[in-house]
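Data availability excerpt. The first of two example chains:
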Amino acid sequence: NQIIATNLPIEKGYTDEATQRRYWKIDGFAQVPCGGTHVNATGEVGQVQLKRTHPGKSIERIEIRLVEVVVE
C-alpha cells in the first residue's frame, strides 16, 4: 500500500508489437507481462490486502484483494 500511495507512474508498452505482447513496469521493479491492468499510476489501483495461503506441500499462493474505501 506504500507503493500505491506514492502514486508512481506505470510504464506500459509492447515486448513484441507484432504479437501485441504488452508489459508494464514501475521504476525500481521488474518488468512484467500485462495482466489487463491499464492504469497510469499506482495510486489509481486503490488499497489492497494480501493474504498468503498454502494449498499444498511446498506451494504458496498470495491472494490480492482490493479494499473498499467508504467515503462519507
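And the second chain:
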Amino acid sequence: MTEQYIEQEGKTLEEAMEIAMQKLGANRDQVKVTVLSEGKKGIFGFGACLCKVRVTIKEDNSATPEGILKVILDEMGIECDIKSTTSDGNIHLSVKTPNPGLLIGRRGMTLNSIQYLVNCMANKSSLVKRRVIIDAEQYRERREESLVNLARRLASKVKATGQEVIVEPMSPQDRRVIHMTLQDDVNIATYSRGEGSMRSVVISTKDRASRESNTGDKD
C-alpha cells in the first residue's frame, strides 16, 4: 500500500501539523508526524526559517487484503495464520488452519466466495486494482491438477464419440482451467453456457461446434 503523506511548512510545528491534517482529511489519531525542521526565528527578520513536518496517514491493517481476510475468518470462528506474498502483480494469501475443510468448502465454493468478497472490499477504494488469490493447504494447485486431468479425459471421450460433453457447473476460475487446458487441441472446441452459478463448460469437436454455430464465450 502506497503511503499517503504531506510535507507542510508553518510558523510553528502545531500550525504545520494542523494544515497538513486538514489537507489529508485526518485527525491526530490517524496520522504519524515527523519533524523535518523546527525552524529558526532569525535576527530582525533575517535568516528566519519556517517549521516543516511530514504528516503520514497511519496504515489501517484491517483495510489490507490480509486484514480483511483475518476479520472474515475470525467472524467464522476459523483459527488461522495468514501468509501474504506478491507475484505477477497479484496478492497471494496462504491460510494455515487446523480445519481447512471448513474454509475450502465443497469443491472450493466457500474459498471462492471468501476470495470474491476480499477482492471486492480490498479494491473498493483502491486506485490500483490488484487481484487477491486465497489458498489453503495448496488446495488450488491440487484442484487445478484435477481439472486438467478431467478436461483431457473428457476431450478424449468427445473425440471417440463425436458427441459434446457438458461439464458440471463451475466457478469462473475453474472454467478457465478447462478452456486453457484444451485451447491448443486442434480437434476440440470449448465454450461456456448458462448463467450465474449454473454456468458450465461445453466440450465439443470443432466440426460439430462449427455446424451448430455455437457462439458461447470462454469466461
